[in-house]
Amino acid sequence: MKTHTSLSCGWLASARRCVSPHFNARPNNEVSLLVIHNISLPAGCFGLPHIDALFQGCLDLEADDSFSELNGLQVSAHFLIRRDGEIVQYVSCDDRAWHAGVSQFQGRENCNDFAIGIELEGTDFVAYTDAQYQQLTELTLEIMAQYPMINSTRIVGHCDIAPIRKTDPGESFDWRRYRDAIC
């Protein structure tokens, strides 16, 4: 399996860069957790520019009625993997993206402090594409090589670190397929 060009200063050279202002420095420079999410804007609609706009803080709230609830939201992830397999990067892995919100992993709160967030363009109930699994696998292996504190036991869904609030990546995500591919 080929891997992406190495991460340099936390940036994946092969990703399309779409820099977000919604990040800050990690308090301890620790990167030890990988969190898998899903997102679609509007919900269930794919291939639109709204995710980039949300993460860049310039979402047109008039573009869809559902966007009014996103007014003032400051959120980002490190990566997005679109349905066609395109990887978009918003924040350097060395910085803290704002993707996990109120969260806890193994008794530690504020997972953003030590986690990398990968969004998959999708929903809890629509199967992810082969291209997404392929890119997620390669990206994960690249991240694990660059940040050795992340191993297969330190890869979780958003639902695992914020179970009362979140359900993603959802029942449509094939954890067995993914874990078999990265081991």
Automatic annotation (TrEMBL):
Residue ranges occupied by any N-acetylmuramoyl-L-alanine amidase domain in the UniProt entry: 20-170
EC numbers, comma separated? 3.5.1.28
Taxonomic superkingdom: Bacteria
User: Which cofactor(s) does the record list?
Assistant: Zn(2+)
| Cited InterPro entries | Amidase/PGRP_sf (IPR036505), Amidase_domain (IPR002502), NAMLAA_amidase_2 (IPR051206)
* Entry keyword Chloroplast: no
Which compartments is it annotated to reside in?
A: Cytoplasm
Alphabetized, the UniProt keywords read: Cell wall biogenesis/degradation, Cytoplasm, Hydrolase, Metal-binding, Zinc
- Quote the catalytic activity from the record: Hydrolyzes the link between N-acetylmuramoyl residues and L-amino acid residues in certain cell-wall glycopeptides
The record's listing under Pfam families reads: Amidase_2 (PF01510)
The enzyme's first-digit EC class, named in words, is hydrolase
A molecular function GO annotation = N-acetylmuramoyl-L-alanine amidase activity
Q: Which family does it belong to?
A: Belongs to the N-acetylmuramoyl-L-alanine amidase 2 family.
Full protein name = 1,6-anhydro-N-acetylmuramyl-L-alanine amidase AmpD
Q: What is the lineage of its organism?
A: Bacteria, Pseudomonadati, Pseudomonadota, Gammaproteobacteria, Alteromonadales
